[in-house]
Design goal:
Blueprint lengths: L2 H16 L3 H12 L9 H13 L4 E5 L5 H7 L7 E6 L2 H13 L6 E5 L2 H10 L7 E4 L6 H10 L6 E5 L15 H15 L3 E8 L6 E8 L3
Parallel strand pairs: 1-2, 1-4, 2-3, 4-5
Antiparallel strand pairs: 5-7, 6-7
Length: about 220
């Protein structure tokens, strides 16, 4: 079992099932051309998010961490005509690239990009009664993942699906002595998620072109 094999299988699945359209391909290319971090979800993961949003029958989605809008486009494609997606991005330049990509995809009427620190924007969403959201995707800085999750709960309803990316970190979550804030951030999040009484949750490991990682999935319980 090698990295090359995992990537080859990932590409095999993509060719069969994903079918990136022109807007998604342009979005991925724009992120590279802008010199932005290559940390968007993979095409297969994007399709997975679209399917999750479809299964949720989501009409309101919240995304924490926009980057260039690649995952945003995937999820927004699942929305009904009156659906809405709010996405939070700390970097104004990244948000500008994302806005252009979302407009090219014809989804700008459904997507609202908020610029600022998520930890400050999330309370504002609660104050304006933007929720409850049907699906929430967390894919931003890892240190405050637990805080993002707790705010996500406040913006949820029974049945809301909360997805958090990058929670295995190539197995580094097993290192209890890690000093890496990205590792310790998701370790703390994973523990809180596992113990929280208001959700049913698990983690699915992922391999492929994005190497080895994992996504946490949590469904908010009925009170």
């Amino acid at each position: 079992m090698t990295k090359e094999l995992f990537e080859a299988v990932d590409q095999y699945i993509s060719k069969l099932f994903v079918g990136e359209d022109e807007a998604l391909q342009a979005s991925a290319l724009s992120i590279e051309e802008a010199g932005m971090p290559q940390i968007s979800v993979s095409p297969n993961q994007g399709k997975f998010l679209l399917m999750m949003a479809t299964l949720c029958n989501a009409s309101k989605i919240l995304e924490v961490g926009t980057l260039g809008g690649y995952s945003t486009i995937w999820m927004a494609k699942a929305l009904p005509p009156t659906g809405r997606l709010i996405t939070l991005e700390v970097d104004a330049k990244h948000a500008e690239v994302a806005q252009q990509n979302i407009k090219k995809a014809g989804l700008d009427s459904k997507v609202d990009i908020r610029i600022g620190k998520a930890i400050e924007l999330l309370p504002q969403l609660e104050q304006e009664k933007a929720g409850p959201f049907d699906m929430i995707f967390i894919d931003a800085d890892k240190s405050p993942y637990t805080e993002y999750f707790l705010w996500a709960l406040k913006l949820s309803r029974p049945g809301t699906l909360i997805v958090a990316d990058n929670v295995i970190r190539e197995g580094k979550v097993l290192d209890n002595n890690s000093k890496d804030e990205m590792v310790t951030g998701v370790q703390r999040f994973n523990r809180i998620l596992a113990e929280h009484p208001d959700v049913t949750a698990t983690i699915i490991q992922t391999v492929g072109v994005k190497e080895w990682d994992g996504m946490a999935l949590a469904v908010v319980k009925k009170k």
